[in-house]
Amino acid sequence: MTAATAHLLLVDDDASLLRLLSMRLESRGYRVTTAGSGRDALSAIQTERPDLVLSDLRMDEMDGMALFHEVQRRHPGLPVIILTAHGSIPDAVSATQKGVFSFLTKPIDKDELFTAVSEALKQTPNVGQDDLTWREAIVTRSAQMEQLLDQAKMVAGSDVSVLITGPSGSGKELMANAIHRASGRAHQPFIAINCGALPEQLLESELFGHAKGAFTGASHAHDGLFQAANGGTLFLDEIGDMPLALQVKLLRVLQERQVRPLGSTRSVPIDVRIISATHRDLAQGMQNGDFREDLYYRLNVVNLRLPSLAERAEDIPLLAKHLVKQIATRHQSSVNGFSPEALSLLTGYEWPGNVRQLVNVVEQCVALSTSPIISQGLVSQALASDESVLPSFNEARAGFERSYLIKVLKMTDGNVTQAARIAGRNRTDFYKLLAKHDLEAARFKVASDAEPPRQSNA
Q1: Which end of the chain has less Cβ packing within 10 Å, N or C?
Q2: Could you give phi then psi for residue 191, rounded to 5 degrees?
């Protein structure tokens, strides 16, 4: 990561020191955001995730170590450097043992500062690099998704097994494919199978292969997906639905790194990276006796939990616009966007079916639209086609409010007076709305300077 692409968050309750350190770091080409307290820092990270946090140790309400622990809990992998005028060797040792990347004592030597920042950025995933083709299938501006993609890029470099969890339709196969494309196996096969979509005997044959005559209808030998994926990645979707008998055989294959086709006496060596996914609670499955504990720990070396679409609501307008262009191109349609009212309706919806449901709704709207702009009525019709998944009135209103506030704050670069005027509210009411949805206007003041969101498909 270069200075030109790195974003630093500087946290200190001393305004003069913030200015001094900001100027030093900006002179080296870094983009710097400042926060005067730990809570402001957490809000800033939620709005636009930085690549590195530099925090003062002694601050009122939330000190640097408390901030570090909260960052570590909410954003694993985000490095933190602690700055203090009260430094000591025991403090430094204690902090670094807990995971703080570095511990610098005030007055800060600029060369030591630049060296520490440079070294910390080497440890972070190369989010700022130009080659983002590995993740081009994922469209997001969500800090939560960016954090997951950081972790995906880090884990891609090794061959450890990954278990992707999250609700149905949240994009688990897309994430698995992204990990494969970021790995050293990228030029080898990526093969996916849904373990819950086939009956047991057919699933066994598909995974492990079979010899000629292994069962009625087996007129020729079949290699199976483990052999087909040799050298690459095998994605086992809905692994929680795999029958127990096949779980035993899968565990043996993973332990021995060889597969014996059904009806064969010969085992075949395999070199396959396993990524699995489920929307089920496998811990509960183990308690119920439906899922083997030894297989669970073999598959769940690294766990990545994908959020629901409602949890990344800021991505809904971005995804909807991207999908319209993609679907319209595929169907040679003249549709090119949504009316503001239609987009607001999409943004305020809870999306129980997640991204998959959004794709279906946009597909229907593009197919039925008689004008280049999709109307609110068409969106309402598409959503009403499944009344059982409609959100409650309060849920829909809350979702719309938060998305609307984010939109007007981005439009006005965090200017509350202008944003309140657009919203038709007085400043006091507008500030109450911001507090209700845990939004800080100051965090949007740099939005116009930020890089445009990376576009890929989710």
Answers
A1: N
A2: -125, 130
